# Entry
Amino acid sequence: FLAGLLAFLSGHAAFVLAFVLRGVEPLSFVGCVVVALLLGAVVQRWLRPHLSGVMTFAVPVYILAIGTMVSAAVGAVAAARAADHPVPSTLLVVGTCCFWVSDLAVARERFVADGYDSDFIRDNLERDRDNFLAHLDEGQKIYRAPNWGWSQCPD
# Structure
């Protein structure tokens, strides 16, 4: 588990560097850092009683890293919009936030999940995803492009 945590931590650091090199709008970045620190403190307080050994140090570092990644994504999108640049899109923020929520689910399952139906959230997310995909084709022809995700078919 620790090796995976370190691998993801490295990935978050790479994303932060990529966003910063692309350019971040400082006010948006700092504002999001404040929110991320507050949320991170809540998560750390929730997880702390369940952590032991090296995880008492590794998990707070990871919480800071993922909060910084989300903040850098917000700053990068704000900078791109201020420069009237079409990329990066808001999907960067959505993606990093989904990553954060996913990591919360992993942390809950790994450190906290005594007696809780671990499949409940996953099952509901899968149902919602399936409902979304089932209705995606209404009025449009949708196909699965190789290695790209969902795209609209040309007429």
About this structure: Strands lie at 142-145, 149-152. The two ends are 48 Å apart (CA to CA). Residues 15 and 65 are 10 Å apart (CA to CA). The first strand starts at residue 142 and ends at 145.
